[in-house]
Specification:
Two copies of one chain form a homodimer. The first copy, chain A, has about 240 residues and is an all-alpha fold. Chain A contains nine helices and no strands.
DNA sequence: CTATGATTCAAACGAACGTATGAATCATAT
DNA sequence: ATATGATTCATACGTTCGTTTGAATCATAG
């Protein structure tokens, strides 16, 4: 079925083809979504034959999965490695929330500067895909992520023993959303209209986005616990200053 | 072109058809996305003829826009109304951040309990659409939102005079992301795996989600300002506790 | 009761979709 | 040099897509 990998410096042709397809698919999926991108666009952009995708990957779905696997394998290994390292250096003590958040979200954002790991394009694709409707994509991502999420959740539980676990999971979820938007398009809603009057900082200034996002995430993660209204019926908004 | 609206109690047939189409489209766009939903699915689910969409709305794109307009018109008017009301009652003083955040995001989340305004289905659709790739959707939403966003941004500028405007806009953006995830599926990444051991609180418990989200958003909004690394080159992670 | 315009309906349009096929072309090992 | 298997290629398949058409059906006004 699949091509056998030979040794030697050969294999330039098909490796090139595979990579070109993956690059084009990454770019187009990011720009137009999975359903909005056709095989003919992908192969056209990549400069390869239409049949090449099915030959090398089997199907469009399998291509999409490979687009993610190519990047996520490294990302999740790096996240695990950082957690291992931090926990090894903490002498059995719980980690600081800022360390954990940086390990998970900081590692992600720092990918944006690494063009050979997909850079901003992949980050945007990922940000948009987490809310994508396509069932098989979310299922695939959930499986790819599961063990990493479990370990980071566990680390947060230990770091914040006084915060109910359900609360931590929700806030992890909120942090994912904030990060997703931070990278998904950054002009998602053109909130951006007229902001950068003074400064010339936009998406590409990752060195400014990262501290900004980190402050926000940590502020949210460590916010006072919510007060649930005791009464049922219509819920009260939290008016506490 | 368009059907003329007569007086009287008639018009039951086409009004029904229009609403049935909008309801089905809202549900299906939420579940499978714009590109992933076909006209035949929509009309089939709605129990109307295939041609009905083009007759009543003109095109699939126009249908999508109407799906949003039907809900957003009310939402944005309500948001404006709340801001007017709060500013009228503040005696010229800046509003509290919690008031502003509740006006914008609280009003949105409270829609989920209002089934006749789309309820959770529309909220999820909206949450997922903000990151959707389809150009025309984002353009449309940006236009529909623009004036509301401007007013809320201005209110935040006034409420937080010591925070740089660019910082506020970024944090607004982050808040949008967190909220989007809070409503988009809530199992976006199955972060949820095993959390609710103790409590039975899930998406449907809006009365618990709202205070939770509000705490997080306000914590993020009022977090300490980020420290930008002075040096250029590779950026340092914010390691400050 | 009949005329009129709005709405519904079955059917079809051409275009684009993902995938499959079998022959041509290439690189390598013998 | 030739055989072999991997890869590329042009082409076609069957489906499904959004949209259009013209006749049938409905509700109302005169």
């Amino acid at each position: 079925m699949a091509a056998e990998v030979h040794e030697g410096m050969a294999e330039v042709r098909n490796i090139d083809t595979r990579e070109r397809i993956l690059d084009a698919a990454e770019r187009l999926f990011m720009a137009h979504g999975y359903d909005g991108t056709s095989m003919r666009q992908i192969t056209g952009d990549a400069g390869v034959n239409l049949a090449a995708v099915n030959y090398h990957f089997g199907s469009k779905e399998a291509l999409m999965q490979e687009v993610f696997r190519r990047r996520l394998d490294w990302l999740n290994e790096e996240r695990m490695r950082m957690l291992d390292e931090m926990e090894a250096g903490s002498g059995g003590q719980p980690l600081k929330p800022s360390q954990i958040v940086d390990g998970f979200f900081g590692t992600l954002l720092r990918m944006a500067d690494d063009e050979k790991r997909g850079g901003l394009t992949f980050l945007r694709l990922l940000g948009r895909t987490l809310t994508e409707p396509s069932e098989f994509i979310r299922t695939f991502l959930a499986e790819e992520y599961a063990h990493v999420l479990e370990r980071y959740k566990a680390a947060l539980f230990r770091a914040l023993p006084d915060v109910p676990k359900a609360e931590i999971v929700w806030r992890f979820h909120f942090m994912l959303g904030a990060t997703s938007y931070a990278i998904a398009g950054t002009d998602a809603l053109r909130v951006v209209t007229d902001w950068g009057i003074e400064e010339g900082d936009s998406v590409d200034r990752l060195d400014r986005l990262l501290p900004r996002l980190m402050s926000f995430l940590l502020g949210g993660l460590r916010a006072p616990l919510p007060q649930f209204a005791a009464a049922e019926g219509e819920q009260q908004a939290a008016r506490a200053a």
